[in-house]
Amino acid sequence: MKILVAIKRVVDYNVKVRVKKDESGVETANVKMSMNPFDEIAVEEAVRLQEAGQTEELIIVSIGVKQCQETIRTALAMGADRGILVETEDQLEPLAIAKILREIINKESPDLVIMGKQAIDDDSNQTGQLLAGILGWPQGTFASKLEFSDQRVAVTREVDGGLETLSLALPAVITVDLRLNEPRYVKLPNIMKAKKKPLETIGLGEFGLDLSPRVTTLKVAPPPERGGGVRVESVEELVDKLKNEAKVI
Amino acid sequence: MSVLVIAEHDNAELKPATLTTVTAAGEIDPSVAILVAGFDCHAVAESATKIAGVAQILVCDDARYQHQLAEDVAALVVAVAGEFSHILAPASTFGKNLIPRVGAMLDVSPISDIVSIESSDTFVRPVYAGNAMATVKSSDDKKLITARATAFAAAATTGGSASVSELQPVDGSGGRSRFVGQELTQSERPELTNARVVVSGGRGLGSAENFKLLEQLADQLDAAVGASRAAVDAGYVPNDYQVGQTGKVVAPELYIAIGISGAIQHLAGMKDSKVIVAINKDEEAPIFQVADYGLVADLFDVLPKLSAALEK
Ligand SMILES: Cc1cc2nc3c(=O)[nH]c(=O)nc-3n(C[C@H](O)[C@H](O)[C@H](O)COP(=O)(O)OP(=O)(O)OC[C@H]3O[C@@H](n4cnc5c(N)ncnc54)[C@H](O)[C@@H]3O)c2cc1C
Ligand SMILES: Nc1ncnc2c1ncn2[C@@H]1O[C@H](COP(=O)(O)O)[C@@H](O)[C@H]1O
């Protein structure tokens, strides 16, 4: 099996972002950036399949600024074979990302594409489904377990009511949820080794795609603030407040 | 042109999020239609005809829609999409799975998880775990949208008298995607996303066994039970209890967070609750910053006392 994993470089999940004064976006200068946490889970799953002898080649793709190379190197240090950076300064929407990924997939012909279910910056939760739709491939979103047999994959999905299992014919697109695995820490020797693995950079222009934005952001504002609350000293006081002040019980 | 809402249902009943999505759709254009794709789903179609403000119900009742796989339902939506200016679904795992696939087939850029509608092409949606609110404008000639259930009121389930048209099924996955099974969480309690009161527990509960203390409190308050990611990951409760950026978004009248620290990812899923209570032994816990009533105490002291006080 040949696997392709798409990873996004995002503001680290520990950072509480601030909206810019001019409301044009959020402050990203001098902010820690990391691999989207879901994408780390996607890479980990692919690496485990490779370690289990189920994978011939594991390719990482990221679309974004030059610094995405660092993010790709992290994935290579986790165990992936080679990386592709599609370099662009543009802020691209999920539909555009999916169209670029299609070009790479047409060239590389993977049997499986694994991605995160959601990028924690735009919170779109779209790209995997868009890609599957564009390719006409089956989709297994919000996966918490994968099992392969006979050119199919059984995907257990985290849905609102509990869990659901689908069987998908390969090639397919999988998007991963939090419970699929726990990503490994990368060890120093592997970071050194990763520096020698191939990482190809392609300019976005080379694809000749029309990626003009369909959705434009007019404004980014801070969320409504909650009014300050009070401390209560005892259970009795709490129950009294809920009954007589807030009137919710 | 009118607006189409994709019904979320289990072939027996409409899910409440369908009703909030109808309200969002009605704010865009008062002429609302609902698509019910399912199997043996007459009861669902029948109840949909009664929703206030809905003009037309499209029903496709066929075995291939029994489990509403995205591949199959998306093909059906595309087949009827022509006459609609906007297509909406709830921002649930159902809607999030489906709408982008439709987007790919129609070459439309979807808009996820809207919380308000500025005009027929401009919407507000949270980004960065709700730490910023983006106003976005779509230039696509059709709009594909998922709507956050807690941001819109539920449409009335009576008073409507919509017409019904039957649709022919459409080729979708062709068996490349098949349903195998499901393990749905059984509970007598109200549904999390829709409950008037939610009692949530975190890592502080320490075990699945201890979660029962919290469930007892939930029963006394007729509340749904929620959890932090840490509690779900530790196996105290099933995955569908998770509240947060990547779990469920809730906005009940009363949210009680017990043994939850209040990470941004958790706050993203509950900070629009009307009244928030936090019980935590660490007075520095960030959850207190959003709490209307904070009690710094050991939850194992508080839970029995709280249950006893509510008995009175
Ligand atoms: C990509 C990503 C997505 C995420 N999505 C979500 C999400 O959707 N929802 C979510 O909740 N989290 C999510 N998280 C995880 C989040 O960052 C936090 O790790 C998580 O919310 C912490 O859960 P917790 O508050 O239960 O645990 P902790 O942070 O460990 O807090 C436990 C709290 O319990 C208190 N406590 C302990 N014992 C007692 C006692 N006896 N009495 C009273 N208080 C006690 C402690 O003081 C502490 O404040 C996500 C993280 C990532 C990286
Ligand atoms: N710029 C990007 N480069 C590579 N992969 C991406 C990019 N943007 C999104 N993805 C993938 O798509 C997933 C879902 O992103 P989103 O639809 O934006 O929430 C992410 O978890 C990544 O796997």
What does this structure look like?
- The complex is a heterodimer of chains A (249) and B (312).
- Chain A is of the alpha/beta class and 249 residues long.
- Chain A has helices at residues 37-51, 68-78, 94-108, 127-135, 188-194, 235-245; strands at residues 2-6, 9-11, 33-35, 57-64, 82-87, 112-116, 139-149, 152-159, 162-169, 172-176, 199-203, 215-221, 230-232.
- Chain A is globular.
- In chain A, helix 2 packs across helix 5 (188-194) and helix 3 crosses helix 4.
- Chain A is built from 6 helices and 13 strands.
- The longest helix of chain A has 15 residues, at 37-51.
- The mean pLDDT of chain A is 97.
- By secondary structure, chain B is α/β, with parallel strands linked by helices.
- Helix content of chain B is 26%, strand content 29%.
- Chain B has helices spanning 16-28, 42-49, 70-80, 93-106, 208-220, 229-233, 264-267, 299-311, and strands at residues 2-6, 32-38, 54-61, 84-90, 111-114, 116-119, 122-127, 132-138, 143-147, 163-166, 177-184, 197-201, 224-227, 254-258, 275-280, 293-296.
- In chain B, the strands form 3 sheets. Chain B has a 7-stranded parallel sheet, with helices on both faces.
- In chain B, a hairpin with a 4-residue loop joins strand 7 (122-127) and strand 8 (132-138).
- In chain B, helix 3 crosses helix 4 (93-106) and helix 5 (208-220) packs parallel to helix 8 (299-311).
- Chain B is globular, with a radius of gyration of 21 Å.
- The termini of chain B are far apart.
- The mean pLDDT of chain B is 97.
- At the A-B interface, helix 3, helix 4, strand 7, strand 8 and strand 9 of A face helix 3, helix 4, strand 5, strand 7 and strand 8 of B.
- The structure holds flavin-adenine dinucleotide and adenosine monophosphate (AMP).
- Flavin-adenine dinucleotide sits between chains B (202-204, 228-231, 242-247, 259-261, 263, 265-266, 269, 280-282, 285, 298-300) and A (13, 37, 120).
